[in-house]
Amino acid sequence: MFTPHTDSEREEMLRVIGVRKLDDLFADVPIKLRFPNLELPPAFTEIEARMQMEELAGANETAHDLACFLGAGAYYHYTPAAVDAIIRRGEFLTAYTPYQPEVSQGTLQAVFEFQSLIANLTGMDVSNASHYDGATATAEAAVMAYHHFRGKRTRFILSPSLNPQYREVVKTYMGGYENINLAGENLDPLCQPDDLASLLDDNTALLIVQYPDFFGRIFDFTALIEKAHQFGALVAVAVNPMSLGVLKTPGAMGADIAVGEGQSLGLPLSFGGPYLGFFATKKEYVRKIAGRLVGETADAEGRRGYVLTLTAREQHIRREKATSNICTNQGLMALATTVYMSLLGKHGLKQLANLCYQKAHYAAEQISKLDGYSVVSQRPFFHEFVVKCPKPVDEINWHLLDHDILGGYDLGQDYPSLAGHMLIAVTEMVSKDEIDALCEALEEVNNG
Amino acid sequence: MAEPTIYEISSQDRIGFRFPACDVPETALPEGLIRDELPMPEVSELDVIRHFTNLSRLNYSIDSGYYPLGSCTMKYNPKINEEVARLPGFAFSHPLQPVETVQGNLAMMYELQLWLAEICGMAGVTLQPAAGAQGEYTGVLIIRAYHHSRGDLKRTKMLIPDSAHGTNPATSAMSGFEVVGITTDANGNVDLDALKAVLDDTVAGLMLTNPNTLGLFDQNVEEVIRLVHEAGGLVYGDGANLNALLGIVRPGDLGFDIMHFNLHKTFSTPHGGGGPGSGPVGVAKHLVEFLPFPLVGIIEEGDEETPPLYGFVRPEKTIGRMKSFHGQFGMMVRAYNYISMHGPDGLRDIAESAVLNANYLLARLRNTYNVPFDRICMHEFVMEGHLDDAPDVHALDIAKRLMDYDFHPPTNYFPLIVHEALMIEPTETENKQTLDRFADVLIKIAEEARTNPDLLHTAPHHTPVGRLDEVRAAKELVLCCWLPDKI
């Protein structure tokens, strides 16, 4: 197993230490609490453990077995074999945070390339080395804006079409600061950018919008961002990076911060994690970014190399004066998406985004022809759309499951006004036949 | 020769991956919402594989060598865990599926919550926090919510011993607490007098790492906890050093109210070059209702024939949501499998072997290097990387010289309370031969420090690059690849 000592080695080591038995090493532990009897199952061998895990995994039905139309922040995409082949290499998988650059150039250069790819994809100047997920990256944008205004601006406008889980996490993260006002929740969930503009004021630190938004809609936020800047506020755009294979970038719209969930760049669904938060911004805010940053430099002989830089911002140096406590990030997931973006490249990323867009539009078109159903999120949208249904969404989804279809997200869970509305996501993983099968099954529920 | 960047090996119109042709009638892309340029690499699959394989070879890793990195628990990561995390039933399950379709996931998470609670002696566990630092944040927000729920708004101070991890003060500050430092006494324990001097009804809690970052089990830990409780505060346990305690003592039994786990340390999920981690949090009974949502619970009891139905529950006074979905699920799968393969005896063997290894290395090195708090240690110890008869040699030089002998350096310059600290955590998975080789090399380096200090000052000599110019990196701030014109 995983502890290697033989009895005789253990004896020899104890002799060198100068104690008689192992238990003597624990004399500082209160004796009445020492060596508790843990109520856990006895140890499995690898063979037994694997069987147990196969049984647990086998008890799930997944996007792999079903036609998946569920998205709402996590998307079923194909992961090319090359991605896993790289991230499973022990040299990446079992390396520590690259605090010792001389023996970590592999990780450091990969992160440097990740930063470059994210900056180029989002149209921003700089990216950090990652956050836990899209929600926490969004929350860190709020924290950064709070500190940017030294706590003097306390209004944070969150679009109602921001992923509701992101809103919840922003709320948790801002809970430690005084007098924070989170606005936007009371707007109509399907409101327009102009409705958000009317909430801006001189006390607004940050406006957060999502693109494509939680309902899949896409807006050009250029005018809204300009208006926010007139009030001196910052704007963060939470963006699905996969969509940027074709869509105009947050950078081109003038966003100050682009954050988001990197899962759509080839990370497995894995029941919600590990995923990847990314955080990109303009050059002028680089010193205010939380988390790790990798920069290029050279050694004494002039050889190019990479190091963690601007570390004085971080918790291990700045301690209680640091604006974020982030330490561990999502290094391996950042590597996975770096490989993914490299492999797909210019051509593949564009082809993928276009495929998702086309299939979603075909699906929306077909569903809108069905009796009892209507697509209520008007164009333009990307690869998700909202369907008003003739019956409760969970009832429809049970019926779809009988047809091996994983139906869309029940929006009534988060938006009372959208009860009976389903959010449908379409990716490259569903075929035209499966979309047609979805339509048939939907029709059947309505008639049945 | 340095590995070029992915952009530097890009070649216009080269294709690395193809998707199937579009099988639906096409709609025009939305006008005015299309990007002009897509500055992404254009490479083949072999270009990609060779590039990242070459990069990987510039890395040190557990799979290739010894990593005595204090406070980081760089133990072996069993390969079976990588296999099981990729089982299609886990890897392709969507976090928002109806709970009835993901009972395998939920049963596993439910049991892992119970196991972690049992291992640390707590009443409830959330698996949601993404990493140790987020676990701490969760814990500190719970402390805050607990006091506020009792109408006790005057508790604004968080006590943090000077041996604490840097995340502790940063976390407390993020949560709106004022950080008050507590000194360490001559034996490496929390200084009881210093503690008593600051305890009053403005103290929200104490964040305690035990064993502490000196690798020592606090000999007064029960008294420390009793004093904080007496003053109305709660005690948070930083679980970074839990590896030393598995099956040895349960933090909950010692009186800790809250603690976090680092699944990527104690339970062997891979560090991945900086993450992902996973930072579940355990709490005592009086704090269960404050845990973040969602928790996994039983929503319909089973009977002899049908298993229970697992689902998500929301604690009554929850502090809210810490991240999207349910936590770093893939890491939970690995940790669950790891605990399954150890059982109660195997867990105790982990702690015993980790502590044995640390004490063995300490015994072999204490005559060569100064160990300021020299007593039986737990899973790690801290020595001074400074030798009286080699005054120009620093901990950093010793750390860098170790690389020439193909060892990863120990954690250095931490904890801050030890001069020129070298913090060594051998972990339980290293054999005696490796420990002996490491000790021999450190003893040899001490000799080199006296006879040929320049060898250390200019180290490392045998790594892909030498010491890098960090000042230049911060000044020039090159954070993105140079883009060739053709992109």
Structural description of this entry:
The complex is a heterodimer of chains A (448) and B (487). Chain A has 14 helices and 15 strands. Chain A is an alpha/beta fold and 448 residues long. Chain A folds into 2 domains: 67-78 and 346-447, Aspartate Aminotransferase, domain 1 (Alpha-Beta Complex); 81-340, Type I PLP-dependent aspartate aminotransferase-like (Major domain) (Aspartate Aminotransferase, domain 2, 3-Layer(aba) Sandwich), CATH 3.40.640. Chain A has a 7-stranded mixed β-sheet with strand order 2-8-7-6-5-3-4, sandwiched between helices. Chain A has a 4-stranded antiparallel β-sheet with strand order 11-12-15-14, covered by helices on one side. In chain A, strand 11 (374-375) and strand 12 form a beta hairpin. Chain A is globular. With 487 residues, chain B is α/β, with parallel strands linked by helices. Chain B folds into 2 domains: 81-340, Aspartate Aminotransferase, domain 2 (3-Layer(aba) Sandwich); 344-463, Aspartate Aminotransferase, domain 1 (Alpha-Beta Complex), CATH 3.90.1150.10. The chains are: A alpha/beta (448), B alpha/beta (487).
Look up the CATH topology of the largest domain in chain A: Aspartate Aminotransferase, domain 2
**Beta-strand proportion of chain A:** 5-15%
Mean pLDDT of chain B: 96
- The number of distinct helices of chain B, counting runs of at least 4 residues, comes to 15
Quickly give the CATH architecture of the largest domain in chain B: 3-Layer(aba) Sandwich
Main pleated-sheet profile of chain B: 7 strands, mixed
Helices of chain A, by number, come to 14
Total beta-strand segments of chain B = 12
Q: Identify the biggest protein-protein contact and residues per side.
A: A-B, 210 and 201 residues
Low-confidence regions of chain B: none
Please, what is the average pLDDT of chain A? 96
Judged by helices, strands and strand pairing, the structural class of chain A is alpha/beta
Largest sheet of chain A: 7 strands, mixed
User: How much of the residues of chain B is beta strand, in percent?
Assistant: 5-15%
What number of structural domains do the residues of chain A give? 2
List segments of chain A where confidence is low: pLDDT < 50 over at least 5 consecutive residues: none
**Oligomer, anyone?**
heterodimer
CATH fold node name of the largest domain in chain B: Aspartate Aminotransferase, domain 2
Q: How widely separated are the two ends of chain A?
A: 57 Å
Helix and strand succession of chain A? HHEHHHEHEHEHEHEHEEEEHHEEHEEEH
What is the top-level CATH class of the largest domain in chain B? Alpha Beta
